[in-house]
Amino acid sequence: MGPMTDPVLPRLILDGGLGTRLADRGNDISGSLWSAQILRDNPDEVTAAHRDFFDAGADVATTCSYEVTTDGLLAAGVAASEADDLADSLLRQSVRLAVAAAEQCGTDALIAASVGPYGAGPGRGTEYDGDYGLTTAQLAAWHRRRVDILADTEADVLLAETVPSIREVEALAGELDRAGTPALLSVTVKPGSDGVLSDGTDVREVAAIASSSSAIRAVGVNCGSVGDVLAGARRLAEHTDLPLIAYPNSGERWDHAHRVWVPRQNDGGPGLLESVPDFLEAGVRLLGGCCRVTPREIAAVRDRALAY
After folding, report:
1. What CATH number is given to the structural domain containing 245?
2. Domain that holds residue 92
3. What domain count does the chain have?
4. pLDDT (tens digit, 9 = 90+) per residue, 71-115?
5. Best label site of 138, 175, 191, 227, fewest CB within 10 Å?
6. What kind and span of H or E run contains 52?
């Protein structure tokens, strides 16, 4: 498992927004399956998008599995008799494509198998508020099959990301521990909250769960503005000795109903590149970008981090 088993996690540069990179390459991700549609219909484009980030200097590839769920496929019109098998196949394919891209680029980068939140499946875009109405046990059961499939691939680590709910954090930690594969956990925080989970829970509760997990190697925040992600990382650092993860988005908000990106009011803080020293000083060891962060920006972040 490489660096994921090292006592001290090395500094790694994550990739950027894979789905939005696919869009920048001319692919239509506006449908309900988002990037999973391209995974299904044009897998060569997924490999090419991974290569773009590797060429920019990314040390980690996040697989195109975030939106791959049986429920999502059913909602997109896949027959009930085929949905489970298709979901399993696409999950495995997402890892194979990332591995192939790394081989083509001659890099020994880590492959992080993305485990998206319930909100990205039947939750209808609720990954930013965690308003699921489900118990921890129900969420664990919903995640179980996907975690098991991805744990049985060539992925180096499972990445449970964009998690908005403390119940989902509990559910995922339990499933990741049960699977026994090294894992990373990244949550979303409320804008302007100074480190409060999207469902209103203080992230110190996330830190406690992650710290007691046998599988989770690092914990962090993603898919928020630079200022919000940095505030969340700093809050986590107060309550855990685990290495931290941070990968903010461009600062825009995803409008799930209209399937468009909506500008947010600037939080008045510096951008991702200018904030690299702040992230590193906060204890972030896995640093990159989320939605709408491009390979060019990842290359700049890498240069800044190496120079720090």
Report:
1. 3.20.20.330
2. 2-307
3. 1
4. 999 999 999 999 999 999 999 999 999 999 999 999 999 999 999
5. 138
6. helix 43-55
